[in-house]
Structures are given as structure tokens and as C-alpha cells.
Amino acid sequence: MTRIAIIGGTGLTRLPDFSIVRRAVVSTPYGTPSADLVYGRFHGQDVVFLARHGDPHTIPPHKVNYRANLSALKQVGIERVVAVAAVGGIRADMGPGVLTVPDQIIDYSYGRAHTFFEDGLEHVTHIDFTRPYNETLRQKLLGAAQATGIPMVDGGTYGCTQGPRLETAAEIARMERDGCALVGMTGMPEAALAREAGLDYACCAVVANWAAGKVEGEITLADIEANLQRGMADLAVVLKRFISG
Ligand code: HPA
Predict the structure, then answer these.
(1) Are 160 and 111 in contact (CB under 8 A)?
(2) Residue 198 and residue 8: Cα distance in Å, rounded?
(3) pLDDT of 2 above 80
(4) N or C, which end of the chain is more exposed by having fewer CB within 10 Å?
(5) Residues 6+ apart with CB under 8 A from 171
(6) pLDDT over threshold 90, residue 15
(7) Domains of the chain by start residue, with CATH
(8) 60: cis peptide before it, omega within 30°?
(9) Using CA positions, which residue lies closest to atom 9 of ligand 1?
(10) Which residue positions hold the site described Important for substrate specificity (predicted)?
(11) Beta pairing, strands 45-51 & 37-42
């Protein structure tokens, strides 16, 4: 049984070097996942791939059915999830193209269906979320990067905004004061739902742009796409090592 899943984000709707074996349409009590679960071989290992924003990429971050996505992965027996995410860089070492494995989260999103534990409960459940990412998986990702020689920043707080608009300069300044190193729109409730589902979960973030107000001028989609292409190519090398190592 396939135990590991990769959730691909913006810039990773399809996994390079992934030989697809089959697609599974999974329905869950929370609705339909963003896309079919794609089963295949990735550098010698069985892997399930899920495109967070759909394939093609049409579902904005606040409309992703995170519960259906995580529930579907759990249902088919997945135990470990590597979530790939495009982010904006806030901290000085988080420039465009940088790869990083965050270790903390602040959730600024709102109105998202964010828990499995709300209806028909036998008892109220509060998961521990002190360390939102699985440390073993984090270290394995960092180790894979080190083995390839591709720099990957260890740790940093991921601030999750609601989107789909990018942030104001003042919002980023506040997030910086809060201690955020990165800003993205999909980190939550995905990470919390993974914990609730008992899945080991870590995030590989690729910095697509300097966050709002960090440099002069507008943030353009063209810049984001160019930086992402570079970062995702590096990440593919790290993931290859991670999976095969
Ligand atoms: N803000 C939020 N999410 C993002 C950004 C950003 O600047 N870049 C890529 N995802």
C-alpha cells in the first residue's frame, strides 16, 4: 500500500518524473478532493500525488476543500504527507528561489472549514499543535537537501493569510513583528487537519517573491512564476533524494 503522499501547490500541479499508474476518484464525508489521487512511481517508490488547487490549477486557496483532501489521503492509507507550497518571503534570508522547511505557523486565515472534530462528536477533541509539523519528516527533508547540496533553510514561521489577494505592506509589517518568516495562503487548515487525521505532515516551501513592501514596486505574476520555476526545479531534486533515500 502506498504510504506517502505529496500535495503539490502553485507551480507543482504535476510532479516531474512521476510515472502515473492509476487515478483514484475518492469521495469523502466532507466532499470531493481538489483532484483525483494520482498513484504512481516516483524515483523507485510508490507515491500518491494530489494537486491542491486542482488539475488544471483552478481552485483558489480559500476555496480548497482541505478536509476532503486530507480525509481522502487518510482513507486510502496514507501515513506521511509532504506538502509543497509557494510562499512570499518576509525574513531577510527568504529571498525569491529559496527553499525552506518551516517549523511554526501563525494562522491569519478565516472562514475555512478547519476541523474534522465538530459534528456528531462523542467527546470534544483538542489536538496538541505546539509543533505543527512532524519533526522526523522535517529533518528527513533537510537531510535530503543537504545530500544534494541544494540549500534549504531550516525553520521559520509560516503565516497563513486568507487570499486570494496578496497582502498589504502593513499586513506584512505586522506579520514580521509577529515573527513570521514566510507568508502563504494554504498552510492552514491543511497542517492542522493532517494532525487531526493522525498523518505525519511537513511542508516544503518555495519562495516565489519578496512579500508586499519588502522591495519597491508591485509583485507581478510573471516574477512569481519565473522564481517558482527555478525553485520548483531545485525542489524536484530534493524530493527525488528524499523519496529514494
Ligand atoms: N503572499 C501570500 N501567498 C503567497 C505569496 C505572497 O506574497 N507568494 C506566494 N504565495
Answers:
(1) no
(2) 20
(3) no
(4) N
(5) 161, 212
(6) no
(7) 4-244 (3.40.50.1580)
(8) no
(9) 87
(10) 167, 221
(11) antiparallel
